[in-house]
Design a protein that fits this description.
Blueprint (H helix, E strand, L loop, with lengths): L1 H27 L3 H16 L7 E10 L3 E9 L2 E9 L7 E10 L3 E10 L2 E14 L2 E9 L5 H4 L21 E13 L2 E10 L2 E3 L5 E3 L10 E9 L6 E11 L11 E15 L2 E14 L4 E3 L2 E6 L4 E13 L3 H6 L1
Antiparallel strand pairs: 1-4, 2-3, 4-5, 5-6, 6-7, 7-8, 8-9, 9-12, 10-11, 12-13, 13-14, 14-15, 15-18, 16-17
């Protein structure tokens, strides 16, 4: 009787173990449909998850509109002629440029500014910045080149009140394709900043003029440009900057392949409140040198000419703002 009871107990135990093993196996081996649905649910949760503070979008920009009148007097052969023109919007007095800013986290910033003017649709700049460390920003794309003070801080129509850009400051081109590294650090009670980059550069035309090479470089050489500035006063009221640009400008395989352009700029920026006014003085002086070369005479293709391709240019702006009107203008 005892043997029979032991055999029955062992049989029931074996049956229970078998049942548990089979049940556990069934639970751990879901069907293919269940697995697919779980994956879809996980992907949906991942796609719709909100990471607050990671992405920010901002729309800014500028628009300008003005009236330009010209008076030109020519004297030829003792005959004097006067020509007058008057126009509202043109390439220099009308522009609508919305600026799109997208920031991802604390490290990446994308800037894109299209421009609508009488010249059609263009792009002022389009670049991506990486904030690598305090005082260190790495940027790539189509951007304003680091040369002088005017292009980066004064060229905008709502700042520059001149009818046209100052003569000579359109060389080098204000924007180009490339990479740059910029930043600034304290220097005791003073501060200093740096902005250096490598770009496609400029193109030397057969008549000796320079223009931007564009997105496709005209040679295998790159142009280096940079600006270093120091703010010697503890209140940062005065900024002194020096810039340099150097690179080959001749088309690859042409007679001007070895031609090089070297440019230098010196700039000053002074802002100081002197009650009841705010004094703002800005200036820039450029020096441009292009290697001497033989150019084809446009009037006779069999003849050539050469000249010392050297020029200087500058711009100064003295602004006095009445501080007593600031609050009223702000409230208005």
């Amino acid at each position: 009787m005892k043997s029979t009871f032991k055999i029955l107990t062992m049989g029931l135990t074996t049956l229970m173990v078998t049942f548990l093993v089979e049940t556990g196996f069934a639970q751990q081996a879901p069907t293919a449909q269940d697995t697919l649905m779980d994956r879809i649910t996980a992907l949906e949760q991942q796609a719709f998850i909100q990471k607050r503070g990671e992405d920010h979008f901002m729309l800014a920009g500028l628009t300008t509109f003005g009236l330009v009148t010209n008076k030109t007097v020519n004297t030829l052969g003792g005959v004097r002629t006067t020509t007058r023109t008057s126009s509202f919007g043109n390439a220099d007095t009308y522009e609508f440029s919305p600026m799109l800013l997208w920031r991802h986290g604390d490290k990446f910033l994308m800037e894109f500014e299209p421009a609508f003017s009488n010249d059609g649709l263009g792009v002022n700049w389009a670049d991506v910045s990486y904030f690598a460390a305090p005082g260190l920003i790495i940027r790539g794309g189509y951007m304003v080149i680091p040369f002088g003070l005017y292009n980066k801080r004064l060229a905008a129509g709502w700042i520059d009140k001149l009818a046209t850009d100052p003569i000579g400051l359109d060389i080098p081109a204000s924007a180009d394709y490339g990479f740059e590294v910029m930043g600034g650090l304290p220097l005791g009670d003073m501060k200093w900043s740096y902005d250096v980059g490598v770009f496609n550069g400029m193109q030397l035309l057969p008549d000796g003029e320079l223009q931007g090479a564009g997105i496709t470089d005209n040679n295998i050489n790159k142009t280096f440009s940079g600006r270093i500035a120091i703010l010697p006063l503890s209140n940062s009221a005065l900024e002194l900057g020096v810039s340099a640009l150097s690179g080959k400008v001749g088309d690859e395989g042409s007679a001007y392949t070895a031609s090089r352009a070297n440019m230098y700029a010196f700039d000053l920026n002074f802002i100081q409140p002197v009650k009841p006014f705010s004094v703002n003085i800005k200036g820039q002086y450029n020096i441009m040198n292009v290697d001497r070369a033989n150019y084809v005479n446009p009037n006779d293709n069999t003849q050539s000419y050469s000249y010392n391709n050297h020029s200087t240019s500058g711009v100064w702006a003295n602004l006095f703002e009445a501080c007593i009107f600031k609050q009223y203008i702000k409230e208005f």
